[in-house]
Amino acid sequence: MKIAFISLMMVAHFTLGNWVFAQERTIRGEVTDAEDGQSLPGVNVIFKGSQQGTLTNSEGQYTLTLTDSITTNTLVFSFVGYETQEVPIGNSEVIDITMNTEAQELEEVVVVGYGTIDRKKLASSISSIGSEQIEGDPVAGLNQAVQGKMAGVQVTQNSGTPGGGLNFRIRGINTINSSTTEPLYVVDGVPVNTDNFTGINRGGRQSLNLISAINPADISSIEVLKDASATAIYGARAANGVVLITTKRGSNGENRISLNAYYGVQELPRQIEMANADQYIGYAQDLYALNEVEPNPALFDRLADTNWQDAVYRTAPLQSYTLSASGGTEKTTYYLSGSYFDQQGIVLGSSYQRINLRTNLEHELNDRVTFGANVNLTRNNNNRVPEDFGRSAPVQLGVISRPNIPVYDENGAYYIDPVFGQRDNAVAVTQLTQYEDVSDRVIGNVYADIELLDGLTFRTNWGVDKLDLEGDFYIPQVVLWEGIQKQGFKTLQRYRTFTWLNENVLTYTKDFGKHDLTVLVGNTLQQADIDRITINATTFPSDQITLAGAAGVYTTSDYVAGWSLASVFSRINYVYNDRYILTANYRIDGSSRFGSENKYANFPSVALAWRVSEEAFLQGNTTFSELKLRGSWGQSGNQPRDFYEALPLYGVNAYYGGSSGYSPSVIGNNQLAWETTTQFNIGLDMGLFDDRISVIADYYQKNTDDLLVSLRLPEATGTLFTLVNMGSVRNTGFEFELNSTNLVGEFRWNTSLNMSFPKNEVTSLPGGDIPDGMDDASHYAREGYPIGSFYGYIAEGVDPATGNVIYADVDGDGERSLPGALDPEDRTIIGNPHPDFYGGITNSFYWNNFDLSIQGQFVYGNDIWNFTRREYESLTGPNNNISVDALDYWKSPGDQTEYPKPTIGASTNALLSTRWIEDGSFFRIRDLTLGYSLPQALGDRMKIDNVRIYAQVQNLYNFTNYSGYDPEISVYENRGSMIGADFGSYPRARTFLLGVNLTF
Amino acid sequence: MMIKYSFYLLIAACVVFCSACDDFLDEKPDSNLVDSDVFSSVANTEAAVAGAYRSLVSKEYYGQQLALVSALSAQELRDPVNANATYQEFINHNVQPTNAILSNLWASIYNGVQPANKIIAYAPDVEADEALVNRFLAEAHFLRGLHYFNLVRLFGNIPLYLTPITSTEEEQIHIANSTIPQVYEQIVSDLTMAESMMPADFQQRGRASIWAVKSLLAKVHLYLGNYDIAAAKAQEVLAAPFSLSEEYGPIFVSDGDPESILEIWFDERTGDNGIWALTLPVGDPYNGQGVPLIAYSTPQGDTLNYPILNFYPEGDLRKESLFYNNGEYYYVIKYTSRPNFDDISLIRLPEVMLIYAEAAARSAGAVTQEAFDAYNAVRIRANVPDAITNYPTVEAFVNTVVEEKRRELLLENEAWFDYVRAGKADELGVTDPNHYIFPIPQEERDFNPKLTQNPGY
């Protein structure tokens, strides 16, 4: 292989050689690696400003001929992974050069709130990834692009639904149930609306991933602000961290057109092994015999042996095309792109399409004034299937539907279960239910930078974020139970938000002597309007016309709301002698969501850093190329999810007796205020051996006080919950990112590893436990335990005498829960959904024009509530099929087994208990990518700057003991108080991709 | 120097900016009304009064579950197919504090209390003519009296919430149990207020009227054993322009019968009356829902073990109207329209007649002609033959009246409470007198530490 490749290059070389033969003057030389002195083959050597040049041969040598037609006097040496060098030719005939590997991450410019900074001068804790890392990893959304790549950032794909939502958790969960756990997203300076858009809700809680309005291919960098010194400048919305997304822009003189395209297929990685028809019939017969109940004999008919998972899942294609143009002149730069993404889901009937257009323009009017605009237009089209715990969710039905009935009857029509008439045919659900959400989103801003005086600039930025979401849901009046009952059932929803923003910032920058100072002050106003209209209609004459107007009965509900935020902020960044760094921020936020007594809040922060490596005593030290100690303290806030909880309110939909009626809905709380997170952070940035190894490590402690809690009131007050500030939670953790260049030279090997060790504890909860989740009792926030701890009975195996599950007598009153006699006091904390640690590891290998990377992602030590398994291993009744494992159920007294007696009627075998809790640890081989870049010379002849083709497998294999489809799952997203539950969640696919990146 | 300058600038910016910001940050809710907006307008207050009735239509209250609880406890409905454990607790008179129907019922009845409290507290400040404000207050007092009457009969020693909740302070949120006499004292006080404030000419479908107030007052006094007051209030209603409808069956599927004193109004916008879903059989002709709760029945057709059918004598027209046999089971078919927006009867004339019959006989110490006539009118309408005219004792007459009331008001939330009141609960299979009232829901006690449990639970 290697030989073949070198031969190919030789051929390329000689061909090129022949072509340039009749020249006047020859220049030759050798290119070697600066570090190890090894010769570098395949280095691109061209005359500057032309397309003419060559590649170094296998000895690292090159020969070029200078002709009259060549006007430049400079050679350009370039090679993937190395710094490009320009060398004047002069009169030399031999030009030998050494090339340095490309700059390490520690030298990059990072984006911070309202500005940018050289990472060396950064005192805060910020993780960032650049466009190379994003492009190398073709994914649907930017959240996925971040997954497993940053310390302290846990991205959980709640479900495999195409276009489905993700959870983005930065340094743990610091809110319980009334605010979001999501960070603030800021796209090119515009904080965008990431409220939970569920679209039409069909039983589940899955939302749409609307931040995926941004095409990952358009992103030049993603910065995640983690410590308070970085986040405090975003004040009241920054307690969950801030994600800054910067999109690409053009640069002077480099006009290029790029095409990124990939195509792939996805499949279900594994099935849950369920009983076949004969096994199910045997179970059903045992069930009735054991319970001495007269069965419905139709239940035992063996009409088919259907594997419903085979019926529901498919191999589905995935494709994406992005075409972009960028470049510019001295005064004007541009970046334009258009993209199309199409993913068919592995569950029949699900798909996601996205069309995206972006324009980024910037123009320099004169020496002092620059202005520009960034505009992003997106259409998302989600075709979903009902998910989670909906009665007709195909993922769930695919597992629990009984196997002795067929998918289709003898006439090819959908078979309707004659025994369980309310249970839908899983395939029919996917094919007949219309469940479409179409969203249009515009995110854009215009800005102007004006240099008022030397070093003093004024920036004004105006942004909008507009979202229109239209949901269209219809169940026809045939085959599906609900549709038959309601003679067709339709839900139409229109949801619109419009958010505008203005921010004005004055920045003063001055270097004098050893002092380096940046001062910034600014203000911002942001305001949003939201409205929603929902129409539910039933009783249609036929399925042909499904307009609400054609329906016999319909109801309309509408909702209008708004919020506003007004803030001032400031920052001082001071560096002395390149060594001592001070950053201080101050922000004052006013928010419409708060009580009249607490409209405004202050968010200060301060950070100090010491670049030890600049000190004299470390000069000349060969071990440390960079060493920086950082420390920060500060505060940030979190707002309530609801807009008007502070006011005593009447709802207006209490219609009665032919007239409209109002009824009390919210008690109100004029003291309502922010959740305040006080974060302390110490960190270390270290570069070793000329930055071949770089480490960023941080330890943090976040104390969140005045938690926004929906306080449960007695029912007799007429209001179940009211929002109060009460209680505290603490998140502590250690995290690090390590980048290592293991091998350099012809064969290069880089490793990046990041790990986070978070710890979460509710430190105070004066109002008592806060239950949540399944039956409002599966997850608890309880003082002394992590948020969302699992709660229930402790199962101690199956009683050989009775076949019932035995539950521990936790309260020691001598009573255990038995059928008909529960002892709820025996419930206790039985699981922890928070991991001990999580992270990612990426190994990249480069050899000649080949690149190979393996990305692993891992989570360790978290528990999962497997409510899906509860459906097929409770063994309560004949409705649900059971797993092959559960066939070992209790059959007669004396049986020793972990699966209880099948029961009909009163049973305690399905109680929320340790039976349904599993270890959620996993190590996923997330991506395996093999790429090949065409040699430059070949590219030259095709007039292409750069060609890379690659093949990738995503979700190649998952090492886990979890029995469900996938342990990376959460049905109750965005609610810190109920994480880690699996209930009919759409499984993630394994994907095989082929892709190409072309640059002209 | 620069730092100092910046801070001045920041402070200046704050001052200029924040004076404008209060307005900017004053986001009025567009989909809700703030309390002060409601009670500053007559029209809005009118809507708040209408909305105060809304809790009655809830499926967890009159819309379904109250009827279910009473009918199961009174041995009028059974669930032979599913043997739902939650239902069995009522049938077996062994209701657990964790029973889900019970806690739903508790919640939905109390859900009606707070709207009434707000009107009672704030309506006097509404600028409107006095008669109108009095009517608002009368309706609110009536509703609050009705809710507490239902609560005290179900749960006994309940907490009294009488003022609007304005904060989460302990004394507003966590209220201790009152005794049964204290609760009745509050009910009588509310209904008496309603009686004094309700304009005599206010008659509106689905809403309280002076007659509804007096009827309920008669009933409450009957429960309290104040038979003379009960008889007097009932008599006032009997003198009012109501009359028995000619036929029994159509009362429940038509609206505005001459005998109905207060019906809960159902229509497309309130949603359906949930009782049909509980009782009507699947398939033709009623097209009920799923597996219904089945009235007295057995697969073998052995009606002897199910006395409610035999409770109706041969020839009683109500028996034909109320029961349907699909060949396998008997079903109760009271509200039969599909889709079902039949109004649910809350008080109708026959009940007042029977209240009068009992109260008059008891207060007179003898079965007077008026008492007998009131009772007999109900019988005659049902075409029950061979009325007994000679009662050896008042007790015997009262027993007959109470049994007649059970026949007349099947599925109207009365027999269970009435039998308990009349000392006939043993006939419904209750052995433990503590179980004449249900336990305080455990869920409520979890969130109100001041609540004590009823004895025997």
Summarize this structure as a short list of keywords or feature phrases:
A: 22-stranded antiparallel β-barrel; five-stranded mixed sheet; 11 helices; globular; B: 457 residues; mainly alpha; 7 strands
- Cα-based radius of gyration of chain B, to the nearest Å: 25 Å
Number of DSSP E strands of chain A: 51
Order of helices and strands of chain B: HEHHHEHHHHHHHHEHEHHEEEHHHHH
Helix residue percentage of chain B: 40-55%
**Range of helix content of chain A:** under 10%
Mean pLDDT of chain A: 86
Helix/strand-derived class of chain A?
mainly beta
Q: What spatial form of chain B do the alpha-carbon principal axes imply?
A: globular
How many beta strands in the DSSP annotation of chain B? 7
- Main structural class of chain B: mainly alpha
Number of helices of chain B: 20
Strand order of the largest sheet of chain B: 2-4
What fraction of residues of chain A sit in β-strands?
over 45%
Write a structural description:
The complex is a heterodimer of chains A (1000) and B (457). With 1000 residues, chain A is mainly β. In chain A, strand 20 and strand 21 form a beta hairpin. In chain A, helix 7 runs antiparallel to helix 8 (426-432). The longest helix of chain A has 18 residues, at 2-19. In chain A, 52% of the residues are buried. Chain B is mainly alpha-helical. Chain B has helices at 2-24, 35-38, 42-52, 65-73, 85-91, 100-110, 113-122, 130-155, 170-173, 180-197, 210-224, 227-238, 275-279, 307-311, 317-322, 349-364, 369-381, 394-408, 415-421, 442-447; strands spanning 32-34, 77-78, 260-264, 294-295, 323-325, 330-332, 344-348. In chain B, the strands form 3 sheets. A two-stranded antiparallel ribbon of chain B has the order 2-4. In chain B, a hairpin with a 4-residue loop joins strand 5 and strand 6 (330-332). In chain B, helix 11 (210-224) runs antiparallel to helix 12. The longest helix of chain B has 26 residues, at 130-155. Chains A and B meet through strand 24, strand 25, strand 26, strand 27 and strand 30 of A and helix 1, strand 1, helix 2, helix 3 and helix 6 of B. Strand 30 (649-651) of chain A pairs antiparallel with strand 1 (32-34) of chain B, so a sheet runs across the interface.
